[in-house]
Every structure is written in C-alpha cells, then in structure tokens.
Recover the amino acids of this structure.
C-alpha cells in the first residue's frame, strides 16, 4: 500500500515565464513525483503547482522548489492582486492515499524546518497549526507582506520555524496540512450580478451559510452570465451535491436557472464518488468498485 | 503507458467451493494480475471472476483458469438456472486502459486457439465475432449445452477455433471482446410488480426502448419493493444518467418514486465521470482531473 501525498504550493511569481519554469522544473526533476497541474495568473502574479507521489519524494521536491523560489523571487518588487506574504507563500500538503493526517503534519514540519533554516519565518496552519488564532491562511496573512516587519516584533507572531526576524527578500511562508480543496464554479443564466451576489452570501460559511464553503460572485462579461465561484474546504462534511442543490434552490427563487458548472483543478475520487451516490441514490456504491481503483497500489 | 485488460470469465460451477477455489486460484497465482471481484451463485450454478492487468499476464491467467475448469467440471452433470453451453462458458475481454479493441481481439483469439487446442469448440462474439448471426451470447448459446451435439453437425455452427466435434465433458466456449458492462438496479417505492414490468419494457432495447439496455422486473420480497434490474452494454452511447432519468420519468407517471439504486460489480471510471458531468452540468470536467488518475501509469 503505497502512501501518496499531494502538495499544492503557491509561489509569488505569475508573470516571468523564466522564473516560473525554473521553479517548476525543480519538481519535475524529482523521480517518483508527478506534476499534475500548473496554473500561473499574471494579474495575481502568482503560480500554483500540484504534484504527488510518495511522501519522501514530495518532501524532496518541495524543498528544491522552495529553495529555487527563494533564490529567484524578491518580495520587495512584488505587485499582484492576490493577497500574499512571501516568495513561497502557502504550501499545503494533502494526504491522498494510505496516509494519516499526523504523517502529513510530520512532513509539513520537516519542510518548515528546512525553510526556516534558509532564514525564512514559517507559520504552521490548518492541521499543522500550533495556535487557535493561527489556524487559517487569512488569520496568518493579515496585513500581508507589508505588515511582516512589524508583526515579527510581536511575540504572538513568533514563527513556528525559522528566525523571528523580517526577511525582506523572501517574506514569510505558511505551510501545513489540509484536505483537498474543491474549486467549484456555478454559472447562472442571468447577467444580474446582484443575484449571484445574494446566492454567494446565502451559501458561504462566513455569512451564515454552509460550513466549509467560501463563495464570491463574479460577472462573466464575455459569456454574458454571472458566476458563484467557490472553494469547498471539506467535501466530506459539505459535499458537492449539497452545495449544488442549495444554489439551484436559491437561484430558482429568483427565477434563474443554472447554466453550467466547472470543477477547476484536481478533484479527489472520493468527491466524485459522492456525486454519483447522491444523484443515483446509490448509497452502497463503493470507490473500490471503480475498475481503475484496482490499478493503484 | 501500461496497457490494462480486464477479463470477466463465467464458468459453470457455483456450488462446489473446492472446485471454485481451485479454478479461481489459477488467476491468483499469476504475477501482475489483480483479482478484483468474484461471484458464485448456487442457484445459477455458475461463477464469475473479474481480474485485470497487462494483457500478457491476463491471457496467461485466463489460459490457466480455463484449463483447470475444463479439468474439474463435467457438463454431463451440470444443472443450473442460468443458460450455459460449456464448462468455461463465456470469456469476455474488456480493454480498460491504453488498449485498442483490435489488440484485445488479438488476445481473445489467442485464448480461443489455446482452448481449441484442448479440444473445446470455441465461438468468437461481439467485437471478435466472425459472422453477423454469431455476434451476441444469446445468438450463439441458442439451445444451450443440450443442443451442441446437433449444432456442431451444421456448417453454420463450425467453431471459430477448436474441433467441430461435440465435447461432452466441456461443451463449448464463447470468447471475445466487449465494453465494460454496467449492472444497474433501480428500486421502486411500490410492491406492484406490474409497474416495474411496464418500466422494464419501456426502457429495454428489445421492446423498442433505449439502445444497449437489457432490463427485467423483479420483486424484492423482503425489502417490500420492486426492482428494474438492468445491464447497460454501451455506457458511452446510453449513459447511466439517461437510463436513470428515463426510469424516474416513467415511474413518476405511475405516481411511484425511486427508492434507491445499486451499481453491482466493477464500474469504469469513465462511466462514473459521466454521472458527475450530467448532474452537475459540468461538461468540461475531465477524468484527468481526478487526483487518483495520476497514480496510474
């Protein structure tokens, strides 16, 4: 039973193809690691990688990737629309197969110690968090890079690894362990952004909606539609179909129908299986029945 | 890109655990083959195995399995409720990954030649068929084992491999290549078998319903429900959601709702993905996005 760990690091370069390539290449070079997705956004000035493999190989790839990013990215010159705190900004490890959370936390902390050793203050988050007020990325990233010099003078912000000292070139890094995050966008057959906005408010956790759902409303100018763009941070407790049907019902109350949906980036098989179980009312269906599942060690 | 072939042989023993075990064990012994499902039915007096791996390994396992079944099963003594023609009755090969139909047909025919060499008349069916009137199992199996001695005197029934001579102990074998077959049962919240029967007639191909759907009505006495029990023989042309929604609509016209559904045995990932795409209206979703997919060579 091979253990499989996924890593989805975000680093603060989304424009310079040379730098993006050099950082990504550190992952490609590691035997036993498979790069499954890359995404660079020029407006955000940020890139996200997704790769997986056995934990030791994933740790090695992540160390090499981070060292290269630290070497090439200077936060003093970084401008982008996405919140960020460091050259290597957020590094989530996600246990995928035959791994307990605790094992993944151990890997995340090994990575944290490594990066700390390179002079970068490191904070542990989610399942690796050490303090209740430093659990989520938004909590830790408050004030972004620009606030770091001041924050690091406060004992409440002493890092979990690395020096309690501002690193102007590299900023600080957040690493830890979380569940796979599902990016679900639902398009509505209307151009009325207010409708999408009201639905986003209804479904998202922060305004009293469904647990583990973050949602914003967007206008899709070209498609002449609006979108509820979401992250589901715990698909076991709040499954995709529950979110989908909540949106369908809300939209219906405005006389608006769903034009389509998108799942962006990697999705775990378990979440796909749950969609099947819900819509076919096939509660006894097991992931083990999927033929391809037998091809994985 | 490893090639993966699935084999789902049916052999004519569902009662004697010793024989079932010895036959199944021939598959277990072959390195590189994974046995993913076994099902023995005493009433049918028949067993079905599902195993997969690289084509060469699957062929080796199938030869060994069939040779053992021929050795241990005597069709002169076989009684069971399921139609059958031979000790090794039907041997479908199913291309699962990185394989063309033609390659699987080549494997099926190698198996046919092997079994023919053991003195068993062999007929090729579905994608390996050699004559239009010998395409399906029911076409070839007409009259069952009991009709074989006579049929083999007719040039229209000269086998595709092996001798045109009745083998009393082993009967004859059907082998070939088909798509994965999906076993879908839909339970209805009524005890009225007539409703299930009318729905079965409406959806099945043989009475003018959906292509590639076989359906019968069953009474589930203990559960106090009725069931439409189906095989979908081409889930690409007639996907699971289409069948499900046809049944929901028909049942609704009798004022009956769907109590639940079961997918029995192995299901290909592609069919699961189609369910998600249909119900989430996520037409752009790709199997490649499923994290576990990246773990398969």
């Amino acid at each position: 039973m091979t253990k499989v760990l996924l890593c989805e690091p975000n680093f603060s370069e989304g424009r310079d193809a040379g730098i993006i390539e050099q950082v990504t290449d550190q992952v490609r070079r590691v035997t036993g690691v498979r790069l499954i997705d890359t995404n660079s956004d020029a407006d955000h000035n940020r890139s996200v990688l997704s790769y997986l493999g056995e934990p030791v190989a994933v740790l090695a790839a992540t160390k090499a990737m981070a060292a290269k990013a630290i070497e090439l990215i200077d936060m003093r010159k970084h401008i982008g629309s996405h919140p960020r705190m460091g050259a290597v900004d957020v590094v989530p490890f996600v246990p995928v197969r035959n791994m307990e959370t605790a094992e993944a936390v151990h890997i995340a902390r090994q990575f944290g110690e490594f990066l700390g050793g390179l002079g970068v203050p490191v904070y542990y988050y989610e399942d690796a968090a050490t303090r209740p007020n430093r659990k989520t990325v938004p909590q830790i990233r408050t004030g972004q890079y620009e606030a770091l010099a001041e924050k690091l003078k406060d004992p409440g912000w002493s890092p979990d690894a690395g020096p309690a000292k501002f690193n102007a070139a590299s900023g600080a890094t957040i690493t830890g362990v979380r569940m796979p995050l599902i990016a679900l966008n639902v398009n509505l057959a209307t151009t009325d952004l207010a409708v999408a906005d009201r639905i986003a408010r209804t479904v998202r956790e922060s305004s009293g909606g469904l647990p583990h759902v973050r949602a914003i409303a967007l206008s899709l100018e070209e498609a002449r539609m609006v979108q509820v763009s979401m992250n589901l941070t715990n698909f076991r407790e709040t499954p995709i179909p529950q979110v989908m049907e909540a949106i369908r019902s809300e939209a219906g109350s405005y006389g608006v129908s769903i034009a389509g949906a998108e799942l962006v980036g990697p999705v775990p098989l378990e979440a796909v299986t749950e969609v099947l179980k819900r819509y076919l009312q096939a509660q006894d269906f097991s992931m083990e029945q999927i033929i391809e599942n037998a091809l994985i060690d």
Summary: The first strand of chain A starts at residue 4 and ends at 7. Chain A has a mean pLDDT of 96. The CA atoms of residues 234 and 271 of chain A lie 10 Å apart. Chain A is about 35% helix and 25% strand.
